[in-house]
Design the sequence.
């Protein structure tokens, strides 16, 4: 039976965050899985609610990942990018986020606002959209990236796309629903980006990527790109990326 | 300690007459059931009493009096009974009920009933007259700016909820010390006469229990230590700990439900149905109601409106109305004189499964199609019913929030009947205020009936294959979340078929077929144009765009293909215009729009009917 994750509805999340930001990090009492905010809900059916030990483990794992990248010590951009890549890969493989529960914004609101607001604050500061569920949520965006750009367990460099692609490229892929929600297409776009960057150089990629993404979205209306043979798809993408 | 005994005073007629027993009739015939009326009236009163900068905390409790409490009620509070036979019998019978159940409505963190205790003896300079307004006077105008109530009649509902029309009121005014607790009993019965010195002395039928003034015999509330002792002995919440506020006990709770837990469910449902805007989690603490419902000693949880269908949808509309930001927010205005009357916000969503709070006769409709009407105080006045959406798996909820400008707010407030459960323009004298209410209601009725009339997309026979909408809907309903912010059709622009629309309009263009020409492809779209009564539609203008992710690409350049409207023709064959603009010359009917389709993309078309010719 699948595990149900705690859900924190949007408005409740906003008030939790406002409270957190108002009182500051120092006054935050830490995450206590035995004492969740009253507005936290579970789905009525479909599994068993997650236990306190799993939630404690989640908190410990996230904190360990963050500390390994300078949480509480540094805000260096490179270590933040490395943190993103690491957490994306970790979330994509986490048992806890392997069911449809992870598709829900309110689940990610809970993770960001209740389990680890301190880590969100370290990563992004006070920007509220990083705490509330959605494509910009600190952890949800990483989970989406991990899921969309996983090369598969048998690949020797399984998570390479996460480390190679720039933040701009990652955002272009995951924030476009027609691309980000389709792992086949998302991966193919990621691979094409790497091929193109080797030719054009990383600095030229931002505008190339924008044009390519627009072209892909337009073509995707009349052709099911993800259903093409991989070599055909790569050909079309090469064209888009001006290779 | 021996508890003190309260004394009875029956109100005699004044030399110039009194309002007497008609008091009970004053409430009119409320459109709500009695329990809902009690909850509405009491909570409205509490809302008005929450002037201390914090939201009121309220406790609504159904309980059976224990033997000791019954004894106190019978021998210390209602020890003397009125001489009038019907009143006497009613109270006697209630006191003999076994079990004797009472309904209590208590509030904390509010102002309580302070001020003088006599209507005719108000020291000069007194501002606060809550006590006499609630207990002595009838029909006192409101003094709470933008408050929930505007009359003083609503309290009759409370008397009605008691099987012997008797209330026990315990109050601690906020500006007073802990020894200023006041306790008084009141009963409303028939008027009656007693022979006295060859004359008939007439009485109004109102009776009070308290401490009789040795001079004129009028009962004032019992106060101080005696009131404290007696109120606590009756089981009222302790005021020394919980602070100022008022507790009202309806002696002999009248209910149609055999099972009291059903009544408790009804109370919770009434609270939510009438006060959900003030129970929302994102309200500042100064406005938020904190409600506790108890049955005997057990707390019955009150769900948050955000987490209970269909209130979650209302909450979404409410947030849209408050911030003027949502999927469908409209400003309702009066043109003569120009005045903003308020904001209407409508939200649509998948109908979530209901969790019923009561087994039968629920106030909450199965498929929502209602606009909640309210003034800025955000108490629901009533629900305006519209048309349900044709697809039963969907529902819509609207919120109309009247403007907080004084003149407009007052117009709506003054149009309310004593029970505050309607807006009746005829209650107002002729003038601007009356038109404000009239215009707003007319617009709202139009909007409400328009909602359900959204035409279903034109179904095409032939090669489209079986429709998947129903299956898709079923799959979609598995996702419980109501918040559908995705692509959705905005409201239709006019009424139903048959009648002329207010403005000339054309339906959203539907793709018909592709035509392959020598060197390019043409997509043909159809639309149906309807003129208004004055045939004022002069020009049809079509705009083509590249389709992308269920909508259109609103950005050009950067190498994006550029589709072009090449002609518009009447469906009867006569090609009239090259390009994207067609002069209508008063005509209406079916039209075909031809769009050149660039390679490797899909196109959409939007049309607009203009009343004046565009220069091009």
Sequence:
């Amino acid at each position: 039976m699948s595990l149900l994750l705690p859900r924190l509805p949007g408005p409740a999340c906003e008030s939790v965050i406002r409270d957190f930001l108002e009182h500051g990090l120092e006054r935050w009492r830490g995450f206590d899985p035995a004492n969740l905010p009253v507005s936290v809900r579970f789905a009525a059916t479909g599994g068993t609610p997650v236990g306190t030990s799993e939630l404690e483990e989640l908190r410990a794992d996230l904190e360990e990942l963050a500390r390994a990248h300078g949480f509480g010590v540094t805000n260096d951009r490179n270590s933040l990018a490395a943190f993103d890549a690491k957490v994306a890969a970790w979330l994509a493989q986490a048992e806890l986020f392997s069911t449809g529960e992870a598709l829900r914004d309110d689940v990610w609101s809970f993770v960001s606002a209740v389990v680890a607001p301190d880590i969100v604050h370290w990563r992004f500061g006070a920007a509220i959209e990083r705490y509330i569920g959605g494509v910009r949520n600190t952890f949800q965006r990483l989970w989406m990236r991990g899921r969309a750009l996983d090369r598969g367990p048998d690949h020797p460099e399984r998570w390479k796309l996460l480390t190679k692609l720039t933040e701009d490229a990652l955002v272009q892929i995951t924030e476009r629903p027609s691309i980000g929600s389709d792992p086949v297409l998302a991966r193919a776009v990621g691979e094409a980006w790497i091929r193109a960057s080797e030719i054009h150089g990383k600095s030229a990629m931002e505008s190339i990527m924008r044009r390519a993404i627009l072209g892909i979205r337009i073509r995707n209306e009349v052709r099911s790109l993800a259903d093409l043979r991989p070599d055909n798809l790569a050909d079309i993408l090469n064209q888009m990326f001006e290779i | 300690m021996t508890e003190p005994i309260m004394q009875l005073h029956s109100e005699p007629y004044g030399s110039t007459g009194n309002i007497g027993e008609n008091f009970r009739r004053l409430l009119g015939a409320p459109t709500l059931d009695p329990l809902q009326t009690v909850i509405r009236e009491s909570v409205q009163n509490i809302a008005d009493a929450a002037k201390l900068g914090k939201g009121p905390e309220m406790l609504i409790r159904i309980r059976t009096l224990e033997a000791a409490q019954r004894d106190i009620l019978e021998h210390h509070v209602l020890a003397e009974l009125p001489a009038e036979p019907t009143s006497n019998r009613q109270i006697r019978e209630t006191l003999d009920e076994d079990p004797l159940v009472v309904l209590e409505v208590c509030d904390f963190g509010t102002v309580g009933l302070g001020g003088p205790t006599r209507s005719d003896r108000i020291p000069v300079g007194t501002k606060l007259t809550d006590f006499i307004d609630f207990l002595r006077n009838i029909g006192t105008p409101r003094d709470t700016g933008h408050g929930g109530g505007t009359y003083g009649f609503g309290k009759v509902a409370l008397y009605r909820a008691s099987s012997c029309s008797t209330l026990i009121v315990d109050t601690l005014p906020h500006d007073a010390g802990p020894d200023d607790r006041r306790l008084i009993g009141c009963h409303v019965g028939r008027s009656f006469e007693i022979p006295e010195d060859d004359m008939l002395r007439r009485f109004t039928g109102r009776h009070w229990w308290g401490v009789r003034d040795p001079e004129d015999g009028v009962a004032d509330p019992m106060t101080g230590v005696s009131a404290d002792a007696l109120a606590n002995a009756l089981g009222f919440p302790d005021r020394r700990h919980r602070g100022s506020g008022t507790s009202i006990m309806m002696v002999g709770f009248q209910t149609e439900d055999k099972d009291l837990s059903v009544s408790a469910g009804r109370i919770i449902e009434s609270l939510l149905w009438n006060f959900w805007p003030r129970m929302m989690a994102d309200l500042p603490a100064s406005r938020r109601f904190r409600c506790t419902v108890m049955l005997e000693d057990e707390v019955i949880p009150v769900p948050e409106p955000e987490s209970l269908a269909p209130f979650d949808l209302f909450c979404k509309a409410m947030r849209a109305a408050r911030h003027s930001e949502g999927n469908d927010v409209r400003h309702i205005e009066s043109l003569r004189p120009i005045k903003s009357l308020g904001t209407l916000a409508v939200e649509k969503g998948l109908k979530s499964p209901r969790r019923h709070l009561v087994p039968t006769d629920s106030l909450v409709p199965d498929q929502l199609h209602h606009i909640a009407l309210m003034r800025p105080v955000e108490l629901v006045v009533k629900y305006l019913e519209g048309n349900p959406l044709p697809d039963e798996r969907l529902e819509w909820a609207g919120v109309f929030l009247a403007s907080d400008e004084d003149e407009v707010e007052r117009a709506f407030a003054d149009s309310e009947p004593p029970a505050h459960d309607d807006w009746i323009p005829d209650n107002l004298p002729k003038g601007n205020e009356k038109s404000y209410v009239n215009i707003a209601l007319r617009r709202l009725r139009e909007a409400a009936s328009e909602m359900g009339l959204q035409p279903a997309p034109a179904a095409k026979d032939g090669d489209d294959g079986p429709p998947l909408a129903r299956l898709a809907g079923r799959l979609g309903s598995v996702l419980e979340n109501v918040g559908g912010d995705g692509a959705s059709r905005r409201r239709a622009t006019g009424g139903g078929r048959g009648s002329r629309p207010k403005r000339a309009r054309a339906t959203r263009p539907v793709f018909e077929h592709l035509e392959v020409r020598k060197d390019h492809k043409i997509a043909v779209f159809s639309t149906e144009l309807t003129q208004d009564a004055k045939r004022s539609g002069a020009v049809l203008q079509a705009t083509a765009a590249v389709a992308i992710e269920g909508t259109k690409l609103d950005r050009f350049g950067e190498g994006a293909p550029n589709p072009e409207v090449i002609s518009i023709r009447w469906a009867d064959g006569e090609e009239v215009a090259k390009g994207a603009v067609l002069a209508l010359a008063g005509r209406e009917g079916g039209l075909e729009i031809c769009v050149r389709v660039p390679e490797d993309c899909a196109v959409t078309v939007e049309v607009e009917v203009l009343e004046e010719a565009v220069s091009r």
Strands of chain A lie at 3-4, 48-49.
